[in-house]
Specification:
The structure is a homodimer. Chain A is of the alpha+beta class. Helices cover 35% and strands 21% of the residues of chain A. Chain A has 16 helices and 18 strands. The radius of gyration of chain A is 23 Å and the shape is globular.
């Protein structure tokens, strides 16, 4: 099997029982011939995720119903071929990629929202709906689904649940698992189970809903989800400020809370991120901008106004300069442009971006970023840090050239050092991207052997034949 | 084994290898002789929970450290005797009760709060701290732990996690599992594992933290917990109103949200609950009071004032009368007195209270309560309904005399009918009490066979010898 971080990127098409003609014939019976893709050019879009390493599946199946998914799993257990579920395919750790071959189940056609209940504050949806479409649909009914991973316009809600996606609003609203109250799941052996239900409170049996969230498609395939909703906040405001140092910027974070404000988002950019967007897009930041903070508040119009003023005062008192506070939606969008500009601005620093998402207790972010700068120098790799200061989840981007094996090796060494230091600070190696195959070599840096053994024993109990998403999480 | 709902209440002391002298000698070595209780009068306080059925343990162990707990579990696996963990022992489904004998591990001495970090918004605590003590300790630092089960003054935080406790504030703040970010757990086989960590965002491996929450002491013993905190709200206000009907009262619930208010608590009392407290304590409710709503809001002083006014308008527009709105903390306490009066007022209706905690989508509460009234009449059993209207979690109290077997039989029939109708309405048989041995006979009314099988396979994988808390959840 290929390991991204060991330097082997992708590989040719695998060959398992999934390629046997009689198996393909039965798969065509199950989902319909037109929903079984085997041609090289047809399966190619299902071969990679945002990591961009290609592992072409032997076949892509596009079921419409839970029963079809269950039949596929039954056959896979009978004939022993790997099955990997795929949502939008925009993950950063290869969770949806069939590294050991077999079939990919694309949930593209399971894309109906079944019920939006604004009175009882839930939505029932199939897994193939994009996060954005779901948000738009519920907001039209006056209700709110808070989790918003950066890829929300293309990620599927099923993938969000499988990866327990985070996002910018998690500083106030938490992560995907805090909103999942019920699931229909096809188990690795092809049984259909229902976990949780329509209510937030539910303590009937073990919390399989909680276990499936973030299980990276290894313990079941989500075929329906019930998500808890909130009343839609009336409005939002944003304050932006630059600081001389990351320490000054991050010191503001607990001060918002002490002033009894819980910002919906607290995003930070380090000096390299600011310099990169400045070079590319000329926002007008000076050379003294060592860190940038974006703070958003939401709620009723009147309290949002007051909270924004409090945030402005906190950042000014904390050494912030070039402070801006939005008064309108348009102004707010402009303040956030700098955050959206990072990814395009990074392109010129290399064809390969090691986009890691370490997390530490938020007061340790300045130490983390300072050390990552040193790590970048040590391994001669350009690094940009930005991310969610409100919950200590920093996106560390080591940039290099994909075709330069020596630079790739140095970048990988920098990633390993960053993981080690994150754990040393009381944090861990992934806040929202998951493990997949990309971070599997580092799992034991974050978890003890007994903890990993407990996880493996659960995997074996539910998937005795190792059918679902093999080659992930555990080496 | 005794089954509460089958009419056998409690039983004599069991006899397993835990009573062997050499085992007791080794247990004394592990925790110290003074922390091994075997005398009948000493173990008696550890024999029952709020269900009040006695299952005396063969020995009670009071360890101080994680290592001691692990050693007990290793010995239990070697010699095959049951181990049941116990917190405050105030559960309603027998989760902490050793129905198959063996030892009880009391976490009474594991009662230190290890770290309160107000900047990074977490607390690290041992399991034997009461919920109330934890809340007081963190509030002294300006931070807030929202979950507040009714028994919070005596329940232990370890038990809250094991049962995924709910409470009054869950309408706004969710339940215990939404606050647990890290655990140290001794597995059923005596391994020490750490799950999660100090950060809210953490997607490294399967979410064992989520699985252990609500696992009722069957998958591990919690020896340390890290809980997420929030900034402490500045103040609270309460609005109380009576209504002619339950339907009118409950119709207000979504209207609060539509008015962009998320009350911290929305509690409801049915006509029988009002009549009971009126008879006993003379609050001054008239015969036309068919339902009572208590609505609390929290936050900044200014928004609390506004939100309370909005709630007052909603209940008035919705047919509420005798509307009262607190202006001070003292007034608020007086408004809540009626809720606290229910339990004492019920005492005269019978020595046995079947306190069930069904949950339905909140718009279905009026249907549920109407049907429960009919069920009570059908089975000639007095019933009182009250509870958490904000999340559809209703406490159904069928009252009868513990010494009247016929009345007990009728009450049990009423409970079963109530469970069936709750499931029919899209709800389930427990919102916050769990299953334990009390609701085990009804588990298959709420969950399908494949779902139960998945749960059992996880139990077997982690506890191959069936050591931890046997006789619970599954029949």
């Amino acid at each position: 099997m290929s390991r991204h971080h060991e330097g082997i990127t992708g590989r040719g098409r695998a060959r398992t029982a999934a390629s046997d003609e009689d198996v393909l014939a039965r798969l065509r019976e199950i989902v319909g011939a037109e929903n079984v893709l085997v041609d090289e050019d047809k399966v190619e879009p299902y071969a990679a995720d945002a990591v961009k390493e290609k592992f072409p599946p032997e076949a892509v199946l596009l079921p419409r119903t839970t029963a079809e998914v269950a039949s596929i799993l039954k056959l896979a257990n009978e004939r022993r071929f790997p099955v990997t579920a795929r949502g939008g395919g925009v993950g950063y750790t290869g969770g949806a990629v069939p590294v050991e071959g077999g079939v990919v189940i694309g949930t593209d056609r399971m894309n109906r929202i079944r019920e939006i209940n604004a009175d009882d504050l839930y939505v029932v949806t199939e897994p193939g709906v994009t996060t954005y479409a779901l948000q738009q649909a519920v907001e039209a009914e006056g209700v709110f689904y808070p989790p918003d991973p950066a890829s929300y316009k293309t990620s599927f809600i099923g993938g969000n649940i499988a990866e327990n996606a985070g996002g910018i609003r998690s500083a106030k609203y938490g992560v995907t698992k805090h909103y999942v109250i019920g699931l229909e799941v096809v188990t690795p052996t092809g049984e259909v189970i229902r976990t949780g239900g329509l209510t937030s409170k539910n303590v009937v049996g073990f919390d399989l809903t909680g276990l499936i969230c973030g299980s990276e498609g290894m313990l079941g395939i989500i075929t329906e989800a019930t998500l808890r909703l909130l009343p839609l906040p009336e409005t939002t405001r944003t304050v932006r400020a630059t600081f001389k140092t990351m320490a000054e910027a991050c010191a503001c974070v607990p001060r918002f809370n002490r002033a009894r404000v819980t910002p919906v988002a607290i995003e930070v950019l380090d000096r390299n991120a600011i310099a990169a967007v400045e070079t590319e897009f000329a926002f007008g930041f000076g050379a003294d901008a060592g860190a940038l903070l974006l703070v958003s508040v939401d709620g009723h119009a009147s309290e949002v106004e007051r909270d924004a003023l409090i945030c402005e005062r906190v950042v000014r008192d904390g050494g912030g300069f070039d402070v801006m506070r939005s008064e309108t939606r348009e102004e707010e969008e402009r303040l956030w442009d700098v955050r959206r500009a990072i990814s395009p601005a990074l392109k010129k620093f290399g064809t390969m971006k090691f986009n890691e998402d370490v997390v530490v207790p938020r007061s340790r972010v300045p130490e983390l970023v300072a050390r990552i700068e040193e790590i970048g120098k040590l391994h001669d790799t350009f690094v940009v840090n930005f991310g969610h200061a409100g919950d200590g989840n920093i996106h560390v981007n080591f940039m290099c050239d994909r075709d330069d094996p020596e630079a790739m090796r140095r970048a990988r060494a920098a990633v390993r050092d960053t993981f080690a230091f994150s754990v040393e600070l009381g944090g861990t190696i992934s806040g929202e991207h998951g493990i997949g195959y990309v971070k599997a070599p580092y799992l034991d840096m974050a978890l003890g052997a007994a903890t990993i053994d407990a996880m493996k024993s659960i995997k074996r109990a539910l998937d005795p034949n190792g059918i679902l998403n093999p080659g992930k999480m555990f080496l």
